[in-house]
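Tip: read the tokens left to right.
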């Protein structure tokens, strides 16, 4: 074993991590108030939890490791998020494989060596990609769909030690402080893994989830709201200058939506604004105070422009279908503040508490949402519940 670990210096830790990624979505109790997950099936990584907390994790003896190659398939439209994590020495030596800008990002910390490398093709195209990680001497090689995608070499001046003890593995999160990352990234990944072949080891993974969410067989780009949660933002995060026009644009099949699409509340004020789809009345209703605009739900795009003294609603880019509301700041003193200090919710109606309690949750798929002509990434919300941020069932 000593010679084995010496040959695997630097690269083995990453390879081992791939060994035990995902084994399926069937769980059973283990007598420790945790569910155990067996291998072989597909697992959805974007399930609700604290985003840095792994979805599943396990611990194995290093002496049980025999294989040095692992393969799995990944499918996502999400450009950024954690795939898996592994460490030895209770987190002193660690690695993370993630995506950033859709490209594989590998980070490794081992002794006095700290490495961060990204490269290879973009993987967030919604297609299944086969990834293989293997050790070749002092190099760790990530192959994507049969071609080299990323090669990492590591060498230390320190005397190589024989590794003993435990290896901790985690899927969809990390087990150390996020500040230890060499490159910071958003951890939540709306994606799936399947068909893993992980170092020929068969051990159970633990999960704190009562049940694991399944992956949809076919997906398309968008944000899916199952009717049980929403995403909340502080409006101060949007780069909006004083008195400047603000535009919010929505794409999707509104006839297949039901519930609150967007709501905004200014500090210390009643609900300022709500956009609600109703399958029963077959209408989409915009509410500002006592004023309302209703349109048929057959539209595919809705653009709402917030001006200093009015709201302008444009349907399907057809100027003949434009409606305006007068909402001057004199009659609504909190109107301008809602885009400076307020809260914005996508997929639910904001409550009046600071805990962002909501209701009337949206059911349906928003194909795209932009604020100030920039895509709104729901993963950046201060609260994010039961939303698939980058994919909808096809």
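Filled-in amino acids:
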């Amino acid at each position: 074993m000593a010679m084995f670990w010496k040959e695997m210096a630097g690269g083995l830790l990453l390879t081992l991590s791939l060994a035990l990624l995902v084994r399926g979505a069937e769980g059973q109790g283990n007598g420790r108030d945790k569910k155990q997950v067996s291998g072989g099936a597909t697992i959805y990584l974007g399930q609700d939890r604290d985003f840095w907390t792994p979805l599943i994790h396990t611990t194995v003896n290093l002496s049980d490791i025999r294989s040095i190659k692992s393969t799995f398939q990944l499918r996502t439209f999400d450009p950024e998020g954690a795939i898996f994590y592994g460490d030895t020495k209770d987190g002193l030596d660690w690695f993370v494989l993630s995506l950033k800008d859709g490209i594989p990002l590998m980070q490794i910390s081992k002794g006095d060596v700290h490495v961060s490398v990204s490269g290879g093709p973009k993987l967030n195209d919604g297609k299944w990609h086969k990834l293989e990680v293997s050790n070749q001497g002092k190099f760790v090689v990530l192959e994507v769909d049969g071609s080299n995608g990323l090669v990492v070499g590591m060498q230390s001046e320190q005397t190589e030690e024989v590794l003993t003890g435990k290896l901790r593995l985690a899927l969809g999160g990390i087990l150390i402080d996020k500040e230890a990352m060499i490159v910071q990234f958003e951890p939540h990944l709306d994606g799936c893994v399947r068909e893993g072949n992980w170092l020929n080891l068969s051990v159970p993974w633990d999960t704190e989830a009562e049940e694991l969410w399944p992956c949809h067989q076919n997906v398309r780009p968008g944000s899916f709201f199952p009717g049980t949660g929403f995403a909340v933002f502080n409006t101060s995060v949007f780069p909006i200058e004083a008195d400047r026009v603000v535009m919010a644009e929505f794409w999707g099949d509104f006839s297949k939506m039901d519930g609150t699409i967007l709501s905004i509340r200014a500090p210390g004020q009643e609900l300022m604004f709500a956009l609600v789809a109703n399958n029963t009345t077959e209408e989409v209703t915009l509410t500002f105070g006592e004023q309302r605009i209703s349109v048929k739900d057959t539209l595919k795009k809705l653009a709402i422009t917030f001006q200093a003294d009015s709201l302008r609603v444009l349907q399907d880019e057809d100027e003949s279908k434009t409606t305006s509301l007068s909402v001057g700041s004199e009659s609504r003193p909190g109107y301008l503040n809602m885009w400076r200090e307020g809260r914005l919710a996508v997929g639910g109606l904001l409550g009046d508490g600071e805990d962002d309690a909501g209701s009337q949750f949206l059911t349906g798929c928003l194909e795209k949402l932009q604020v100030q002509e920039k895509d709104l990434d729901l993963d950046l919300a201060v609260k994010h519940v039961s939303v698939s941020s980058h994919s909808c069932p096809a």
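Helices lie at 2-7, 12-17. The two ends are 49 Å apart (CA to CA).
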